[in-house]
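Example protein
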Amino acid sequence: MDVTRRDLVKLLAVAASAGLAPRRLEAADGPDRLLAFEPLGNVTLLHITDAHATLRPVFYREPDSVIGVGAERGHPPFLTGAELLRAYHLSPGTVEAYACTYLDFPALAARYGRMGGYAHLATLVKRIREQREGRTLLLDGGDTIQGSATALWTRGEDMVRVSNLLGVDVFTPHWEFVYGIDRVKELFGDRENKGLFAGDFVAHNVTELNWAERPFRPYTIREVGGARVGVIGQAFPYTPVSHPRRFVPDLTFGIREDGIQALVNELRDGKKVDLIVLLSHNGIAVDLKLAGRVHGLDVVLGGHTHDALPQPIRVGRTLVVNSGSHGKFLSRLDMDVQRGRVGSYRYRLIPVLAQDIPADPEMAQLIEEIRRPYEEKLSERLAVSDTLLSRRGNFNGTFDELVLDALLRGADAQIGFSPGFRWGITIVPGQEITLEDVYAHTAVTYPNTWVREMTGSEIHQVMEDVADNLFHPDPYYRQGGDMVRLGGPWSRRAATSRRGGRALPRPTAPRRGMLWPRTCEASGESGSRHGRASRSWAAKENEHASRARMLRGGGRPGARLVRRAGVASRGAAEATQDLLSPGRTRRGACEGRPRQHREPRQRRRLEEHRGLRAGGPRPGPADLSRQEHGS
């Protein structure tokens, strides 16, 4: 990128307004040039989503495998690594490559540092609002109040307080419901009453069972820069499937595109709005299909699938934006809106680089106040990572493999399942693993673990069901999440951690005929390091659902493969802590409860008295597969 004298002057002005030293702009490829943004028009939409309660800056590696189905293949957002760089004309080794891809992640992480953090995000938001006074709207796409120890222990209150200070104007939910509908109403209010949240909580597709009445407002209208902006809320359509039904026992969800069309018509014709925004937690593939079927939407601000789009995807006249996750990015969309039409727009996906953007003192003080009662627990050192530990990707993540190792040992099981959650931070080589880091991968309000007998055919059924959910040719049938994580004696763990100065034991090498896809960071390709597995999965991708052939027992999917299987996530946090730091005093969410020791034979009966209804059926394959849909 060539920087002209005029460009340099603009960069210096932007840097000064953001509190950045001019000398830090000497390099044309430096991070600070990404803050340069020439305002346009009268409306600025700021979008964040899927923060997963990540209050402070973290490392977060983008996926190395995001597979599109059919016509999706080879097109955004189903691009990773070098393909993504080519598609958006980005250079390897730059800050954009660090923020948007997995390439050279450890080296670039050392250069550019941690990303996100609400104190740094607050600095950006404040500066833009000062620049665009009366013309800015900040929208949050949900999955905000879950994903950390402090969010779990405060039941989401910490993130609502932070969101209020940040000045979030409009919010729509998904993981927010895992605290139960009563808690959601305490924090966010309902159609009649305000909650702790100061902004507008909108979700048109949530209705009361049998009555079809909406407990929350379907939309809100805001005056922005002289234009009337209507924002429709779209909660995650499959909330009752992705989480236990008990959290929302009397509510129904769904995509409800007819309902969106009716609201668009109402806003456009009845309310005379100039701009219609869908604040969505559908996932990018659903948003793209929806944008082509609902007429009159100007912008879709999407979330759920954690996609970071360097540029909006245009579907007809609708702009579809997704803004990543974990507070890494702030999307800015400036538009010239006149007489009900968008004349022109300008967009930037702004990476929140903590070492280059100063922390807002007021937000930093609030975060310190929130963390103070738990600081000793959060900072407890468990181990040091020797290699990269990450989660995100269609298939497996190295931190997931660590969790699975812990479950297998704790449950005396031969095969372990863990949900294909997208949320969870990255640990770089040489970084300490603390209790806070473990909770960043395991902080759920329904931590059930089942230990039971399973046959190869049952395991195959689980994997088929989850694969069909992930790779269904119709996006409306995809219910979120990545592939269920599978651990067993053949697994090849790509990372190690040291406890007490020694490496953790590695699992045994894969056996012939046991095929399991692994993300291969060295080559930047998805699949096993064994060519047979990669070819097998590539062939199945063309059939839209990646089939679980790795579970062949002696070459027959129905063969009896295991005697026992441990399924995350009840005890996943505890088991991982024990693996990383054996002999430690149990702390955190289990504090105050005596640890229960059981012999391996006794564990086979755990499902009879661990969180299951008395006299209820034993968990079967359907119960296992339905857990994998959350993200």
Summary: The longest strand covers residues 341-351. The CA atoms of residues 123 and 248 lie 36 Å apart. Residues 1-33 form one domain.
